[in-house]
Specification:
Chain A: It is found in: Mitochondrion inner membrane. The structure holds two protein chains of two kinds. Chain A is of the alpha+beta class. Chain A has 14 helices and eleven strands. Chain B has helices at residues 12-17, 19-36, 54-61, 65-83, 104-121. Classes of the chains: A alpha+beta, B mainly alpha.
Chain lengths: 423, 128
């Protein structure tokens, strides 16, 4: 039954994609206009923590965004954007730094200018770093790393990928960062090959023209590169207050595959209907008050798959962890028939619904625009139709053969060790 | 601009703009700076800026740690000399080439920011 339904369902019909990618003066520009009342322009820069020459520089650069440039001061940017009624935001991931402006239709000239003047003529003054940037960096570190879930994921990345993708999104608690470091990083990162401009609710021609005007003088030296990721794995235990948190997972180097997404979707304990238990193999073992979240994080050349388990009691966390590991092991032996179709459908839905909103579309399709590959929702979803039983079994068993990544944050005297969970 | 203060009215820029005027005034300016005597107490001209003002206070926080240290050292040395009622030994006098305006650019920057904030606080927005 699922087979017939799955083949007739036409997810591809929804035109969530960047129709064309224009190379405007060396910068890739892509826009899609769905007639929304607001427009959004994102400058996606290959300046994530993966590419930073010194720990925390990417975090520093992210917080320097929208400070004074040759064109306007930090205050001027804020006040003028307020007058136009726009919102400026930044988002840092391990691979990309996204500078985004959301605004009403018609104000694109001003907001593209704000974004591009940071790229081309940011001043990086020492007093702005001391007065505005540093306090924000410190408070971001404090709020994020005091959350055990964020902390566990940071540690998991560090164990799984060591350098490159393993480098933290946040600067260290007492950073030895200087403005010169940040400025040097910005100069190496803000080059033509490193930037993609993505528009939504704005026509391709208008955006291309504005980018042409503003970024034509940008240096076109080599784009950022880092060594290809490889997976290591390991175990760490960090004492901390708050919820008892463990991360159990595996990583794989190489382009993220639909098989691993399907595996993660299969073991996901998130029910499809609210307040129900769902059919997940883990769900019956989750005690009330304990949460199990499946983690599937794809990067350009690596994937991290696993579970984040949080709860008040170490015992219930341990029970949920055991169930999660055994479910992962069972699934890695291979899925048959409807089980696989169910998993693929769930993974496909997750991938398709992720590009429904703007942030999702930028984070899913933006890297493809930057890489010059086909940036459409269809291209994103088509690998799911090709998942076969044998390919799934192969991908899953290879994943589980690697050394596991195990992180526990909380009361380390009572939280389980990796071998106690059956890893 | 205030009549008194670090950024009070000055003809220096007008004089420096003209070559002839600069040539005539430089000896007089040097004579005046030496006569003022602050160099004999190991101070630079920017140490004499009135600092009991919010803008100058903010400018002082923008000095590099090294500049702040040196500034405090000069103050300490000068007050000691003042206690002794005698200028410093001649080798410790500040040489004219060392007497640079290290604080003024920061003060100008701060005043510019304050002016801009005032402008944005009182701006009248019109329809285009």
């Amino acid at each position: 039954m699922l087979a017939t339904r799955a083949s007739t369902r036409n997810v591809q019909r929804i035109a969530r994609s960047f129709a064309t990618v224009v190379d405007s003066a060396g910068v890739k520009v892509a826009a899609v206009d769905l007639n929304q009342p607001t427009s959004s322009v994102t400058f996606l820069v290959k300046a994530g923590s993966r590419f930073e020459p010194k720990a925390g520089v990417a975090h520093g650069l992210k917080n320097f965004a929208f400070k004074s440039t040759a064109k306007r001061s930090a205050l001027g940017t804020v006040r003028e954007s307020e007058l136009y009624g726009g919102v400026l935001s930044t988002n840092l991931s391990r691979e990309y730094l996204a500078l985004t402006a959301d605004f009403l239709r018609g104000d694109e000239e001003y907001f593209v200018d704000v974004l591009s003047s940071f790229i081309t003529s940011a001043r990086f003054t020492r007093h702005e770093y001391d007065e505005y940037v540093k306090p924000i960096i410190e408070s971001e570190i404090h709020t994020n790393l005091s959350d055990p879930a964020v902390r566990a994921l940071e540690l998991a990345h560090a164990l799984a990928f060591r350098n490159g993708l393993g480098s933290s999104l946040f600067a260290s608690e007492h950073p030895s960062l200087t403005v010169e470091d940040i400025k040097a990083f910005s100069q190496s990162a803000f080059t033509k090959g490193n930037i993609a401009v993505l528009g939504s609710g704005i026509s391709q021609e208008v955006l291309t023209k504005l980018v042409d005007q503003s970024l034509s003088k940008l240096s076109s030296s080599a784009s950022s590169s880092s060594t290809p990721s490889s997976y290591f794995g390991g175990e760490t235990r960090i004492p901390s207050h708050g919820l008892q948190t463990i991360f159990v997972g595996f990583g794989a180097a190489g382009t993220p595959s639909a098989e691993l997404a399907a595996l993660s979707a299969y073991v996901s304990p998130t029910p499809s209907v609210k307040w129900s238990q769902g059919l997940s193999p883990i769900a019956p073992s989750i005690a009330p008050g304990t949460s199990v979240q499946n983690i599937y994080i794809p990067y350009s050349d690596a994937t991290l798959v696993g579970f984040l388990i949080q709860g008040h009691e170490s015992a219930s966390v341990k029970a949920a962890g055991k169930a999660a590991v055994s479910a992962l092991k069972t699934a890695s032996a291979g899925l048959k028939g409807d089980d696989l179709k169910k998993a693929v459908a769930k993974a496909k839905f997750t991938a398709a619904s992720a590009i429904e909103n703007r942030e999702g579309m930028i984070s899913m399709l933006g890297p493809k625009v930057l890489a010059g590959s086909q940036a459409s929702g269809e291209a994103n979803l088509s690998p799911f139709d090709k998942v076969s039983e044998s390919a799934f079994a192969k991908a899953a068993s290879t994943l589980l053969k690697a050394k596991p990544t195990y992180v526990c944050v909380g009361d380390i005297s009572s939280l389980p060790y990796a071998d106690e969970l059956g890893l | 601009m205030p009549v008194y203060g670090p950024l009070s009215y000055s003809l220096a820029s007008n004089i420096l703009a003209s070559k002839a005027l600069t040539r005539w005034f430089t000896p007089f300016a040097n004579w005046y700076a030496n006569l003022a005597g602050y160099r004999k107490y190991g101070l630079k001209y920017d140490d004499l800026l009135i600092e009991e003002r919010d803008d100058v206070q903010r400018a002082i926080t923008r000095l590099t740690p090294r500049e702040t240290y040196d500034r405090n050292f000069r103050f300490k040395r000068a007050s000691q000399a003042s206690v002794l009622h005698a200028p410093l030994p001649k080798e410790q006098w500040v040489k004219p080439e060392e007497d640079v305006r290290y604080l003024l650019p920061h003060v100008i920057e701060v005043v510019k920011e304050d002016t801009e904030r005032q402008m944005w606080d009182t701006v009248a927005v019109g329809r285009k």
